[in-house]
Amino acid sequence: MDNYSLIIIKFVLGMLCLILQINLLGKGNLAPTSAIDQVQNYVLGGIIGGIIYNGEISVLEFIMVLLIWTLIVFIVKFAKDHNIWVRRIIDGRPQILIQNGKVLVENCMRAGISANDLMFRLRGHGIYEVAKVKSGILEQNGQLVIIENDEANVRFPLINDGQINIDVMELIHHDEQWVFEQIHKAGYDSVDDIYLGEYINGKLTLIPYPKA
């Protein structure tokens, strides 16, 4: 087999692997929202780009590398979606940078946000005074979400994929017992039954997983 044919075969296999990952693992890779999404794209691109032009690596070896990487990504995603501790290790957790009009300097320093960067982001939201901010939260993807003093609703879901968001629970001044009570009142057995839970106007709105 000549070199050009080998390159074409590897390129086609790489594209098929990319399509397979997108369809199996979701389309989040098209618009990465976390560090693991970015790493997955970079590594897969490096594998495909680095091996395509290497004539010493056979098609079978190329397929094995693609399968191993796809398996690793699938395992990591499954663990992240079903275990809050794994998710926090991989994606981190939202950082509260501003609370009740006060800048939490230690959190800003830990997140690598300078005072100039913080004010620049606030100006992007049309806010020019920290005192007007009820809560400023740095998302895992680096976006700063602002909740102003006159806003009643929290812009974060209280429940994600069957897991309670502790930071949001603290913002709304409730505890896990209250969350469990709301879930039981709605007719569900546990938080594992909930796909998404939003805190709106003092009430918890629940969206369950479809019944098997």
Automatic annotation (TrEMBL):
Membrane topology term: Multi-pass membrane protein
Name of this chain's protein: DUF421 domain-containing protein
Keyword vocabulary terms for this entry: Cell membrane, Membrane, Transmembrane, Transmembrane helix
CC terms in the record's Gene Ontology section: plasma membrane
Domain of life: Bacteria
Compartment list: Cell membrane
Lineage, highest ranks first: Bacteria, Bacillati, Bacillota, Bacilli, Lactobacillales
Tagged with keyword Membrane: yes
Annotated source species: Limosilactobacillus reuteri
PANTHER family: UPF0702 TRANSMEMBRANE PROTEIN YCAP
Keyword Cell membrane (UniProt): yes
UniProt family annotation: Belongs to the UPF0702 family.
Database matches in Pfam families: DUF421, YetF_N
